[in-house]
Every structure is written in C-alpha cells, then in structure tokens.
Amino acid sequence: MNFVVDINQDQFIEEVIEKSKTTPVIVDFWAPWCGPCKQLTPTLEKIVSKKNGKIILAKINVDENQGIASQLNIQSIPTVYGFVDGKPIDAFQGAQPESKVEAMMDKMIEATPGNEIPKLIKEANQLFIDQKFEETLKLYEKLVGIDPGNPKIIAGLLRSLIQLKQFDDALEMLDSLDEKIVENEEIIKIKKLLDSKNKTDNDDLDDKLIEEVNNKPDDMGLRFKLANNYLALSENEKGFNELLTLYEQNPSWNEEAAKKKLLEFFDLLGFNDPNVVEARKRLSSMMFK
User: Fold this and answer.
1) Which side of the chain, N or C, has fewer Cβ within a 10 Å radius?
2) What predicted TM-score, i.e. pTM, was given to this entire model?
3) pLDDT tens across 157-166, in order?
C-alpha cells in the first residue's frame, strides 16, 4: 500500500475524512512555488514511510484546489492538518523540525480508535512501579513486537532489563537500535546509566569499604564512595540510602555532592523507578523540614 498520496478536493471526504476513521491522515497543503514546502514535504514523506502504515500522508496542491483550502481557512503554506477519527486534532504552519513533526504523528497514532498500545504502556508502567519487573519485561517484549520503532516501548524494555541486572542484554539491544532512536532523550539517559556501571567483571561490592564506613560513619568521602559503588552495581536503594544519610549529616558537603548525585540518578533512572519515588520523598522532607 502507498502511504503517501496526492489528492484533490473531490477526494478529500474519501481519502481524508473516511480513511482517518481507521488510520490517521496527515494532510500537507502545498504549492509548487513555495520554498518552505520543498523543505517540509520530504520530511513528512520520510517520517510517514518510517511509520510503515500507521499513518497516511495526503498532499493537496492549493493552487489546484482552492475550494478546500478556503473551507479549511488555509491562509499560508505550508499548512499541515492531522485528522483522526474523521476530525482534525492538530495543525501547524511553516516548515518545522523533524522531531516536532514526528511528535505530532506519534500523538495522532496514539489517538487512533482501537489503538491498545497507550493502554498497554500504562499497564507496563504500573507493573514497573509495583516492582514486578519480570512481568514488565514480558509486556514490553510483547509491545516491541507490535510497535518496534516506538521509543517509549524501547525505553521501557531497556529499563526493565536494567532492573533485572541483565546489563549485557541491554547493551546488546542498545547497539542494535536505529540511529534516530538512539538520539531519543530517554534512550540517551539509559545509555548514560549503563555507561556508569562498572566496566570490570567484578559484580561484588568491596566488603572492606563497607567495614570502613561502619568504622568511620562521619567520613563523608568514604560514604560517598560507597554510595557510588552501590549505584554502579544497580544497588540503587542502598546507594540512595547512603547519599540521603550524607545529605542529612551535611547538605552542603563538597558543594552539595550528595544532592547532585541523587538528582542525577533520579533523572537517569526515571521518575517511575520505585527507588526514585521513595528517595525523592525522603529528600524533599529533608529539604523542606
């Protein structure tokens, strides 16, 4: 099936209104003399092709179809409308960055009647919050089979692997990702998180370091080192506990190093992470008591 079509105003009802009841349709109003149109249209075509049938691009030459342009109050070009379930749900004018165009298309796809993916992602997120990571992983594996290019799904799958300490699997998956997906903000955070892990084959914490901290509880440098060791091994709850103890002892120590490290890992792990949820509450109570 061709997912990019040139239509005229007589085909608008059939090719846009009716088709959008089952598949979202993005409509590009353009003209041959329009410079920005020559920039935008290839971007639209590229993203639609990448979505592989989840969305249709209908292109309308306004010079040849002034009636429909007038009905939709097209005052400048390029103008783009997004139709879902027979109704326009979004629009923009002028050339736009590829990321903004793709975000609009993703929003349209998610809003399509009968699309179960947003509901399943929400279910997977709740399982993650409930720390049912094996179940979360299975659901994300199912989702990635349904929508393999969805960054939300890929991020959820990677975070599940990290929680289960399947780091090699997570790294292998990262290496296999499309370049555009790797540039996604959430995927970048996950890559940084994996890069922060120990590069050695030793998966055990140095018992001597724990003993030193127990013997010298006021040595903040030692405790900070222990916290970093825990975080490097994905013992996040223990790492957060050490950092919160540090912050409680002296919030200003080493230019607020404990707070900065907490906030860094809150961001990298994501706010759905159960350890992040608990540690954020504790940090807030300490900051505003």
Assistant:
1) C
2) 0.72
3) 999 999 999 9
